[in-house]
Task: inverse folding
């Protein structure tokens, strides 16, 4: 990917589309979800590809109280074989940071952020992602909130990111880049948008479910 097609830094926030109201059905069917409009993150994305970028990003991320969180791993179609995470996505209110583990090592500074109880990391099946990262560099995750647990506490049948977005935010998110090669040295614009959207939606869902009442599980 050339610098002309995918800048590493975008510092000018773009106007965000207003979120659709929550869909007040217990669980939309796949057919109903497919009829919803697609929405994606359109704001700034920072690609972390060297140690200086990482240090600057972590300084800002440590000042946050809630981060949308996700990881991406290259798919494998060989039975019994797994790949390690290649990308960490962290979303603030106005920027999404993508840490490419093909460029920078998973280090103590990243581990410290993910272990901090002062900064919530929110996502679906987030404990599995944390365990996969801990196999690269041992750490104990802290301040972790699983959106699926929050959904169950509120009697919401939908618990995947796509179905939660559809039911609570009234739009669908594209999963077309999910099975792409996340170990590529240069991510495509489609991969960047997909990865940023997942982290952003996770953060938005956290606040949406807080407004629905009942306490989400925090570890």
Result:
């Amino acid at each position: 990917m050339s610098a002309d097609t995918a800048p590493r830094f975008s510092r000018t926030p773009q106007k965000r589309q207003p979120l659709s109201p929550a869909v007040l059905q217990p669980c939309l069917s796949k057919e109903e979800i497919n009829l919803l409009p697609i929405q994606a993150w359109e704001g700034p994305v920072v690609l972390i590809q060297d140690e200086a970028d990482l240090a600057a990003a972590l300084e800002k991320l440590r000042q946050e109280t809630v981060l949308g969180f996700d990881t991406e791993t290259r798919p494998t179609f060989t039975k019994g074989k797994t790949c390690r995470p290649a990308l960490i996505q962290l979303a603030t209110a106005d920027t999404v940071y993508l840490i490419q583990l093909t460029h920078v090592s998973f280090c103590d500074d990243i581990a410290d952020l993910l272990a901090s109880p002062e900064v919530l990391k929110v996502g679906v099946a987030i404990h599995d992602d944390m365990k996969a990262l801990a196999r690269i560099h041992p750490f104990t995750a802290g301040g972790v909130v699983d959106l699926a647990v929050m959904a169950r506490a509120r009697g919401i049948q939908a618990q995947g990111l796509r179905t939660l977005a559809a039911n609570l935010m009234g739009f669908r998110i594209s999963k077309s880049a999910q099975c792409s090669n996340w170990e590529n040295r240069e991510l495509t614009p489609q991969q960047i948008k997909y990865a940023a959207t997942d982290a952003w939606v996770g953060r938005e869902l956290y606040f949406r479910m807080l407004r629905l009442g009942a306490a989400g599980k925090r570890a």
In short: Residues 30-211 form a domain with the Nucleotidyltransferase; domain 5 fold (CATH 3.30.420.10). Residues 1-25, 215-219 have pLDDT under 50 and may be disordered. The longest strand covers residues 66-73. Helices lie at 30-34, 51-61, 108-115, 126-134, 147-153, 161-169, 189-211.
